[in-house]
């Protein structure tokens, strides 16, 4: 299971020495969107996940807490 940070790290690793525009063009996404993903302002989705052969799954955690009686 990958976290968002892992996806961004893998994208940066695959980008290597190429420019952001060049790498985004290879993936087929907009360079401004890739930049927003790198900065944490957008979630990785679509072609970025397809490029890494990943799919998004949300897992919700439910926690319980003991009630305090008055």
Provide a descriptive summary of the structure in words.
- The protein is an all-alpha fold.
- It has a domain at 4-51: 434 Repressor (Amino-terminal Domain), CATH 1.10.260.
- Helices cover 49% and strands 0% of the residues.
- The chain is built from 4 helices and no strands.
- The protein is elongated, with a radius of gyration of 17 Å.
- The mean pLDDT is 91.
Secondary structure layout plus pairing:
Layout lengths: L3 H12 L4 H8 L3 H9 L7 H5 L19
Keywords for this entry:
single chain, 70 residues, mainly alpha, 434 Repressor (Amino-terminal Domain), 49% helix, elongated
Summary?
By secondary structure, this protein is mainly alpha-helical. The chain contains four helices and no strands. The protein has a domain of about 50 residues: 434 Repressor (Amino-terminal Domain) (Orthogonal Bundle).
């Amino acid at each position: 299971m990958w976290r968002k940070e892992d996806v961004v790290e893998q994208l940066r690793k695959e980008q290597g020495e190429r420019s952001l525009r060049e790498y985004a063009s290879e993936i087929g996404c907009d360079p401004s969107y890739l930049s927003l993903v790198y900065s944490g302002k957008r979630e990785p989705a679509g072609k970025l996940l397809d490029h890494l052969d990943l799919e998004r799954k949300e897992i919700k955690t439910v926690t319980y807490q003991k009630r305090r009686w008055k």
